[in-house]
Amino acid sequence: MNDKKNYGFTTTILHNDRRKGIEHGSLHKPVHTSVAFGYADARQLASVFQGKEPGFRYGRQGNPTVSALEDKVNKMEDGVATLCFATGMGAIGAVVQSLLRAGDHVVSSAFLFGNTNSLWQTVTGQGIAVSFVDATDVANVAAAITPATRIVFVETIANPRTQIADLKKIGDLCREKGILYIVDNTMTTPYLFRPKAVGAGLVVNALTKSIGGHGNALGGSLTDTGVFDWTQYPNIFENYKKAAPAQWGIAQIRAKALRDFGASLGPEAAHHIAVGAETMALRMDRTCSNALALATMLEADPRVAAVHYPGLASHPQHALATDLFRSYGSLFSFELKDGIDCFDFLNRLNLAIPASNLGDTRTLVIPVAHTIFYEMGAERRASMGIAESLIRVSVGIEDEVDLLEDFKHALEEE
């Protein structure tokens, strides 16, 4: 391949392993299962451990198969460095473990994935303050910032009610204040949106979802976009300031979150995700198209009370989504009219599967309030706009006509 040519998104991901050279002419980076890496020269081993030259130390801190995936994700996000973790929550947990200390303050969107919300609730008991705000308006973020604020954290499209943070204006605010801006890009993926464009310093991706795309491997990643000036961040240990400032953050995350905390991605999962990533753009085009068609049909049905999807003109942030994203994503949620039992409706579906994952090739549905958001309680759900009848739909790649017919039939049987 011509390494100097700028190829398109899918071409770059598809051929990325070959650009680096692979053993025996393989088209995929092979699965390296070894957890130890030997060196003929003991001095070189010491040099690798001290960060003076590249190399692998121990499987918990890096692996050739995982590194190949990291390079793929890094190119997707146009980053300077990417680290992979065992899960998406492992990636978010790495932020807490490596970058926050007692007395710090976090401003977070109130509209969050349930487990992320739970994590922030946990850290409040560890001496870290968290303010939950309606991040669809930058004014709410600005009002919550204090001198102790270290991080502002948002999702691109909230799961499950699809609220969209005021991404660019929040990025401008963080740049002005010198605050680290972290954006979870899972719902959009790097194909639909690059948070670097709005000033995100770190980008989270749950690789389990649309990037891997086949529901067969767990994984997560953190990408340093190169936008944030780490010399402004007070929580960097002196030991990690030996490298260029642009590397301080990722060096500390690698040491404190991978080496010390151990949330490492295994090579077999990394291989599954890397292969799945090759078709991400194709799958996203199909799932986004299916989602828009299905959401449009449901919005017009008299038995549906509300549909929450950024692709609909009725969505409060539709214009913002149109401006920011290539398309509107593959996830939406909807509420049935009073008197229609959500469980009975879900049981009438033939193709859509009741399951808790998202970003799969198959369409998955789940009654939100009774499952993934049950633990937080009715009051917190209400504050997030989550109705008791809310059904989340992660749209797959099925033929559109079959998908529409499946939901139409389930409604007509009411």
UniProtKB/TrEMBL annotation:
Q: Does the keyword Iron-sulfur apply?
A: no
Q: Name the Pfam families on file.
A: Cys_Met_Meta_PP
| InterPro entries documented for this protein | Cys/Met-Metab_PyrdxlP-dep_enz (IPR000277), OAc-hSer/O-AcSer_sulfhydrylase (IPR006235), PyrdxlP-dep_Trfase (IPR015424), PyrdxlP-dep_Trfase_major (IPR015421), PyrdxlP-dep_Trfase_small (IPR015422)
SUPFAM superfamilies associated with the record = PLP-dependent transferases
Cofactor dependence: pyridoxal 5'-phosphate
Entry keywords, A to Z: Pyridoxal phosphate, Transferase
Q: Does the keyword Iron apply?
A: no
Instruction: Enumerate the NCBIfam families for this protein.
Output: PRK05939.1
Q: Which family does it belong to?
A: Belongs to the trans-sulfuration enzymes family.
Protein name per its UniProtKB record: Cystathionine gamma-synthase family protein
